[in-house]
Amino acid sequence: MHFLKWMYPGIKVKRWLLLFSMGVIIASMGLAIVFNYKYVGNFEETIFRMVYLTTGRYYYTVTTIVGIFIIAGGMVLMTLATKQIIASVISVLIPDGSERLIELIFQKRKLNRGPAVTVIGGGTGLSVLLRGIKSVTSNITAIVTVADDGGSSGRLREDLGMIPPGDLRNCLVALADTEPLMEKLFQHRFGGTGGLAGHNFGNLFIAAMTEVLGDVEQALKESSKVLAVRGRVLPASTQTVRLWAKMTDGSIVEGESQIPLVNKRIERVYLQPEETMPVESSLEAIRDADAIILGPGSLYTSILPNLLVRGVADTLRKSQAVKIYICNVMTQPGETDGYSASEHVQAILDHVGPGVIDYVVINSQNVAEELQQKYAGQGAYPVKNDAEKVEAMGIKVTQADVINETNLVRHDPLKLSRTIVSMIYKLKTNSERMRLLDYYLIAESIKDLKKTDR
């Protein structure tokens, strides 16, 4: 019997179970005394003799008081034993202690009941959003592009015939709720000059799991357990696909990593094979979502490749969820040179048609002059905010300060997640609003407490 395992030596529970039992017995005796129960007559007689000899009267009153004290003593023992049993179990299951336990309870009880959010994209931009949104809900699904053909991912793709794991790995790490060392391990890139040089450990791990389990979806699911991931990470397709681009001058460029290098204006991108089959779980995540978010990320090489997978755009169009596109802050050299916000939106509509975007989030904060000069040296400039042109397309605009300026201009995870959750809240019914706002405020409170602790 499994219960008997609690009696094994070294469990450090038996002593507290015994103490709890003693507390129950003592409390029971106290109750019996208070209610003058016949089976404790001898014990009551002893109390009577002691009371009578010392007071000579008030027998029943004093007996009741003694009984209450005995009950209280039993309750104290039971409480102490319960506390020690819980502490003993927590010390084994959760070595980090009570703070970690509070995080887990919050995640399971509150975040698991948060809004269902499906995020579509790839690259570092998607990871930034996921880091912020996971503090609000655990019902997150990241649908990730599989068109990457550069670096470690490209090599594994060619050598093993698998989908590129790089963007999938970044999303797993972004959603992870694990130790910093484990995150560093998954992001570690091997040096040297041998066969492992340039490879990322996380990529190799996902590749190994895929070969062991024979299925990349299952490999990502098991990898999520290792990293204690909040939510799911899914590929848009399990087929090995390649991204092609037709330029405005009529030339054709093959390969996601090669498209930005030719420094020509892109007319259209497409996948080979054109009939790339989707992952059914990804389509289900789009159907079941409360909100669907496109980006942030590279327009032509991270966002559009997902939408070009068969059935994704149509499922997105039919979804009743709030559909939000997060426009990039800076243009990308060789990809969106000179693009305004409306041109980003227009490129998406030209490729997959209308009905896939309800709202566009555009950064309203000016980029610092020194950072603009730095980026200008790389051929990147702030995306022009032409909200009026976007709204002329029948798409609503939300303008907000969503950037974090350090030595780079990037979306800020906290600012972005606040903006997104606020939008979801405003667009829901009253009952749903209260529920979503509750999760949002709790998440913000925990963040504030963490900042105070630091």
From TrEMBL:
<dbReference type="Pfam" id="PF01933">
    <property type="entry name" value="CofD"/>
</dbReference>
<keyword id="KW-0472">Membrane</keyword>
<keyword id="KW-0963">Cytoplasm</keyword>
<comment type="similarity">
    <text>Belongs to the gluconeogenesis factor family.</text>
</comment>
<dbReference type="InterPro" id="IPR010119">
    <property type="entry name" value="Gluconeogen_factor"/>
</dbReference>
<keyword id="KW-1133">Transmembrane helix</keyword>
<protein>
    <recommendedName>
        <fullName>Putative gluconeogenesis factor</fullName>
    </recommendedName>
</protein>
<comment type="function">
    <text>Required for morphogenesis under gluconeogenic growth conditions.</text>
</comment>
<dbReference type="GO" id="GO:0005737">
    <property type="term" value="C:cytoplasm"/>
</dbReference>
<keyword id="KW-0812">Transmembrane</keyword>
<dbReference type="InterPro" id="IPR038136">
    <property type="entry name" value="CofD-like_dom_sf"/>
</dbReference>
<feature type="transmembrane region" description="Helical">
    <location>
        <begin position="58"/>
        <end position="81"/>
    </location>
</feature>
<dbReference type="InterPro" id="IPR002882">
    <property type="entry name" value="CofD"/>
</dbReference>
<dbReference type="GO" id="GO:0008360">
    <property type="term" value="P:regulation of cell shape"/>
</dbReference>
<dbReference type="GO" id="GO:0043743">
    <property type="term" value="F:LPPG:FO 2-phospho-L-lactate transferase activity"/>
</dbReference>
<feature type="transmembrane region" description="Helical">
    <location>
        <begin position="16"/>
        <end position="37"/>
    </location>
</feature>
